[in-house]
Amino acid sequence: MTTTKDFDGRELRNVLGRFYTGVTVVTSVARDGTACGVTANSFTSVSLEPPLVLWNQALTSQSHPVYCEADRFVINILAEDQVDVSQRFARPGEDKFNSIATSRGLGGVPVIDGCCAVLECRKVATHEGGDHAIFIGQVEHIISSDRSPLLFGDGKYMKALPLEPNGQR
Ligand SMILES: Cc1cc2nc3c(=O)[nH]c(=O)nc-3n(C[C@H](O)[C@H](O)[C@H](O)COP(=O)(O)O)c2cc1C
């Protein structure tokens, strides 16, 4: 165990990376109808009644102005066979949706095929969070499947390994 008070950005990232998460692609649509999507593991649940979730986005992201303006976003929770989808949406670019199968959900926001689960949200609040913006959405429609989720931790993609309640496999 190491204790550090004077940590740098890399050390902080490494420690944050010890918290393993699922992987989502948050999609939305610009005012001119252009679809956008970004890979995000900052997604978390906030409230059950009302049903609220959040994710946060770096202010420097190319697509940030779209998410600021948009009334809606969709949380596409990726399945374990969608590493390529995660990688595609983790890079800036115009052609992110090329050869990605989608349908249009509420408000015309893209819903990615083959996900583990999907939450279609209406944006209800935006908060400042240092160099990120925190977007809170009210869930209006959900899609679920029995696909296994893709996980991310320590900078790597992973598969889930279920354990019994006693901690054994
Ligand atoms: C596993 C993973 C999780 C990520 N999580 C976030 C996140 O929560 N928020 C964020 O702003 N960027 C996150 N990123 C980085 C963005 O996906 C990346 O900066 C992307 O290029 C943003 O798209 P844009 O430049 O088109 O806006 C993550 C990347 C990966 C690979």
TrEMBL record:
GO molecular function: FMN binding; riboflavin reductase (NADPH) activity
Transport found in the keyword field: no
Keyword terms, alphabetized: Oxidoreductase
Keyword Oxidoreductase set for record: yes
Start and end residues of each Flavin reductase like domain: 16-159
Family the UniProt entry places it in: Belongs to the non-flavoprotein flavin reductase family.
Protein name: Flavin reductase family protein
Species the sequence originates in: Emcibacter nanhaiensis
Lineage: Bacteria, Pseudomonadati, Pseudomonadota, Alphaproteobacteria, Emcibacterales
